Amino acid sequence: MDWMLLGAIGGLLILSAWVFEMAEDVKHHRGLRDIRFAFLYLPGISMLLAYSILTIEPVFIWVNSTILVVVVFEVIYTLHIIRGRRAGGKRHIKGNQRS
Known about the structure:
The chain has helices at residues 3-27, 35-54, 58-86.
């Protein structure tokens, strides 16, 4: 088996899990459980992406850049939910009957 194919399949599985989790969060109007996770994760994934680019590893460039986009989306979505809660907006909040 070509090593690039092995890496691509592994990357696809990882990305599928991230996208599935993100879709579930949006579907149920949930943000990140703890946004501090993302503020630690973003610099880490950015550094890994830089390393992947510098070492010219196409599979890791693809995986890390896609995960970076997903995490940025999740942070923006979570901040949107938090802002809505603070403003007293009528957003659906898991465990609450408001809609």
